[in-house]
Amino acid sequence: MVRVPGHPCAGSSPYVFEHIRVVEALLGRYLLDTESIHHRNGVRDDNRPENLELWTRPQPSGIRASDALDWARSILTRYEGPGSPPTVLTARVP
Q1: Torsion angle defined by CA atoms of residues 54, 89, 11 and 29, in that order, rounded to the nearest 10 degrees
Q2: Which of 91, 70, 84 is nearest to 35 (CA)?
Q3: pTM greater than 0.70
Q4: H or E segment at 67?
Q5: β-bridge mates for residue 55, sequence order
Q6: Mapping DSSP to helix (H, G, I), strand (E, B) and coil, where does residue 51 land?
């Protein structure tokens, strides 16, 4: 855990998981409420960028098909194309 007072994920304590901070640094932004981080090798304290994947939660249940299509389009827009975040994170080499 890393002390980050005022961070959106901090809640009632000023601490945030290190893997969240690693990914946010790579993305250059805070995680969205619908995003989470997965440790590819299952080792929760292995916070190397190449071991972390950006995941998004599935669409809400109980929605109309047209709403599901709109949701899917918004996900494609967010995660495809130039400037979109990678789903498998790697360290940037200058």
Answers
A1: -100
A2: 84
A3: no
A4: helix 65-79
A5: 36
A6: helix
